Amino acid sequence: MKAIQARVSGQVQGVAFRWHTQERAQQLGVTGWVRNEVDGTVLVHAEGEDDAVDALVEWCRHGPPSARVRDVAAREAAVTGSSRFEVTG
Predict the structure, then answer these.
(1) Catalytic residues, which ones?
(2) Which of 6, 8, 46, 83 has a Cα at 20 to 30 A from 37?
């Protein structure tokens, strides 16, 4: 079990990035949350099996077709024990 926090930058707001991230996380069995930040980035907290979390981070590197991801800065985070993946903010 691992947890990460990833900040996704580029054209990632207003392109359904959060909704698609939630959909992909649920497919992978990853829990956590995704939210828009005031600086135009999207922040993702993901936790679950190592391979599943890594797959979600890799998916974030391109995102949905309408997104233009410039960078994904991921770092380890504390596991919170969340039971589902939510869109917040």
Answers:
(1) 18, 36
(2) 83
